[in-house]
Amino acid sequence: MIKSKVLIIDDEIEFASTLCQRLKLRGMAAVDVHSGAEGIACLPKMNPGIVILDLKMPDMNGVDVLEKIKEYDPSIEVIMLTGHGSSGSGVEAKEKGAFDYAMKPLDIKDLLNTIEAADNKRSKV
Fold first, then answer.
1. pTM confidence score
2. Which long-range contacts (CB under 8 A, 24 or more apart) does 120-123 make?
3. Using an 8 Å Cβ cutoff, are 50 and 5 in contact?
4. Does the pLDDT at position 15 exceed 90?
5. How far apart are CA 72 and CA 67, in angstroms?
6. What DSSP character marks residue 56?
7. Residue 86, SS3 per DSSP
């Protein structure tokens, strides 16, 4: 069972809300927002343990949002998503503190395994 709250930050509204519902169906406390600014504003209200963050959004670059999340709370585990085929961006995100990155379209089982690993890492701290 995932103990951490999960915040999804993705400008693709249908994708984010569908993913949020799928996580909720699995018993997770999940919230989705649709811009980097909304995600940053949501941090103190929600106190997520895990953030699923899109790399490319119109208002902010995902790496910039990642840096703000880590400034707010370095213990938040961030899973970066990219639909733009750039594993180089994922590597950059990991260098800046992301837990992992995944390519869209997602395999939900792989994402769930990554969320579980991130939650396990948090519970050991």
1. 0.94
2. 121/77, 122/3, 122/4, 122/49, 122/50, 122/75, 122/77, 123/3
3. yes
4. yes
5. 9
6. B
7. coil
Q: How far apart are CA 74 and CA 118, in angstroms?
A: 13
Q: Report the candidate in 40, 41, 11, 42 with the shortest Cα–Cα distance to residue 29.
A: 42
Closest CA to 78 of 45, 124, 40, 106: 40
- Is residue 99 within 8 A of residue 121, CB to CB? The reply is yes
Q: Per-residue pLDDT for 104 more than 90?
A: no
Higher pLDDT: 103 or 8? It is 8
Q: Which superfamily does CATH assign the domain made up of 6-106 to?
A: Response regulator (3.40.50.2300)
